[in-house]
Structures are given as structure tokens and as C-alpha cells.
Write a structure and sequence with these properties.
alpha/beta; Leucine Aminopeptidase, subunit E, domain 1; five-stranded mixed sheet; 5 helices; 5 strands; 34% helix
């Protein structure tokens, strides 16, 4: 996200356009520009294709048996390797979610976030890992990704 304050945008916008339009229109357009600045890309519900620099991030099991849900899509479409349950594989990245409670997932999420930081030219599209076959809720999993909000090349599901 651009490191421009709302006040900076206001002054730039005011100098350029304020004399040309009414105050009401000015403030309406300004609010729209601020809203766009604050929006962040989110992972679409269904991913059917990827750009060359995009990585499909999915929930897996430690044995890498990608037989259902997003893991199966990763295997069939994005290069996930049967038998590999963790990490980068093709245009996919596996985060194990089937080995126990939420806290057993945290180290793998932390490892993923670090990996994403080390690979800034890639964009990681995180699916709702753990919220399908593994049976967790968004409220249980999304806090694990708190630090990911500060990483520009990680795209999270809506409301995470």
C-alpha cells in the first residue's frame, strides 16, 4: 500500500481540482479516492488460473495426500506434488492444517509468511486454509495471518 497520508492526498487533490468543481463534488470524489487507497486486494473465492508470478496457497496434510478441496485443485492445476505436504511446489504452497488444533498450524503459517517476505516478486493468493475439510472456522484461522497484513505480496481471503 502507498505510504501517502490522507492529508497529503487532500492537498494534492485540492490544488489540482478544487477550483474546477463544486465543494460537494470535491468532497465526494475525495472520499472515493480515499476508499480506493484503503482497499486491499483479496483472494477470490474460486481460483481457476494464475499469472506466472502468482502462487496458490492451500491447506494440506503432512503426508501431502492432496485428495480433496483446495489441495486437490492445487494438485490438478497448480503443480502440487503428491507426497509433499509443506511448502512451495509448482505454483502452489502447502500449509498443513490436518495434524491437530489451531496452534499446530501456527508454525507453518509463520514459515509461510517468512517465505513470502523472502520472495517479493511472487504474489501469494491464500485460500481459506483449514476452513474446509480440516473443519476450522475463519475466526479460528484468520488470526494466524495477522502479520501477513503487513506483507504486500500476500493476498488474503475477504475479512481475514
Amino acid at each position: 500500500m502507498v505510504n501517502t497520508s490522507i492529508q497529503d492526498v487532500f492537498y494534492l487533490f485540492e490544488e489540482e481540482f478544487a477550483e474546477k468543481i463544486s465543494n460537494e463534488t470535491f468532497f465526494f470524489v475525495l472520499l472515493q479516492k480515499i476508499e480506493v487507497m484503503e482497499q486491499k486486494r483479496t483472494t477470490p473465492e474460486f481460483i481457476t488460473s494464475l499469472e506466472p508470478n502468482e502462487i496458490f496457497v492451500f491447506g494440506s496434510n503432512l503426508k501431502g495426500m492432496h485428495g480433496g478441496g483446495a489441495a486437490y485443485i492445487a494438485y490438478r492445476k497448480f503443480g502440487a506434488i503428491m507426497g509433499q505436504g509443506v511448502g512451495l511446489q509448482g505454483q502452489s504452497y502447502a500449509i498443513p492444517t490436518m495434524q491437530g488444533g489451531v496452534e499446530t498450524i501456527r508454525p507453518y503459517v509463520d514459515e509461510f509468511i517468512q517465505f513470502a517476505k523472502e520472495h517479493p516478486t511472487l504474489t501469494f493468493l491464500v485460500t481459506r486454509i483449514g476452513c474446509g475439510i480440516a473443519g476450522f472456522t475463519d475466526d479460528e484461522i484468520s488470526p494466524l495471518f495477522k502479520e501477513a497484513h503487513e506483507v504486500e505480496n500476500i493476498v488474503l481471503p475477504p475479512n481475514w
